Amino acid sequence: xxxxxxxxxxxxxxxxxxxxxxxxxxxxxxxxxxxxxxxxxxxxxxxxxxxxxxxxxxxxxxxxxxxxxxxxxxxxxxxxxxxxxxxxxxxxxxxxxxxxxxxxxxxxxxxxxxxxxxxxxxxxxxxxxxxxxxxxxxxxxxxxxxxxxxxxxxxxxxxxxxxxxxxxxxxxxxxxxxxxxxxxxxxxxxxxxxxxxxxxxxxxxxxxxxxxxxxxxxxxxxxxxxxxxxxxxxxxxxxxxxxxxxxxxxxxxxxxxxxxxxxxxxxxxxxxxxxxxxxxxxxxxxxxxxxxxxxxxxxx
Length: 300
Ligand SMILES: [Fe+2]
Hints:
The protein is an alpha+beta fold and 300 residues long. It is 15% helix and 20% strand. The protein has five helices and 13 strands. Strands 1, 2, 3, 4, 6, 9, 11 and 13 form an eight-stranded antiparallel beta sheet that branches.
């Protein structure tokens, strides 16, 4: 699938309808409550990224099976994207908004403790599910994910957010996701860039500041990174700066993230096609995200 141009071009464009025939009724009583240790909550809120070791070990085979559907037939699912340039080694694939299309993802969203963990880490009264996002780097890939914050790519704004990134393979710290400790609290928004070639997104004249040079200033920025085992979960704030090196991926590196919204999150418009784009969302800036698309899955 390397150099699969059709898939690359499909990035950020609606392919199949992610909502299919609507969101089914979800029985919240089937979502297990998991008690997050208070010191982990404190660390999450101060650092913006925290490791929950082994939290989803029991979900690894389910999530791998779901991701395999994504990989086997990318165009059958929403927002598939190959970010590997033609001729470059390996493959860097991602796809998102498939939780209604891939039963294994649906099961994880609606039957795992993720909603409960998200609510406690954010310290909110209720939690809305935003979407899932699956990633796969094949062996040989040397493509860096540039330093970025997720929030400027999204059609939401707020301070109570969390992504729960579940590693599905062993990842050594040299190729794992890295975070700048505390960057979610800087009060800064950085210009979104393409993961394909690192170029600035066209934002119709509205240019945010560029991400600072993290690599050259190790004294100024503290990097958080962990060796990961399958089932380890990194919780991180949508505002946290994160990325990977261009270090060669020696073994397959798969992961599935679920993304969650807390009480203060509101719809916003951005000068880019957001990821995901929701052209028919029917909201005004400042509105709460509609619950018929982004269901409330946990209440305190
Ligand atoms: Fe990201």
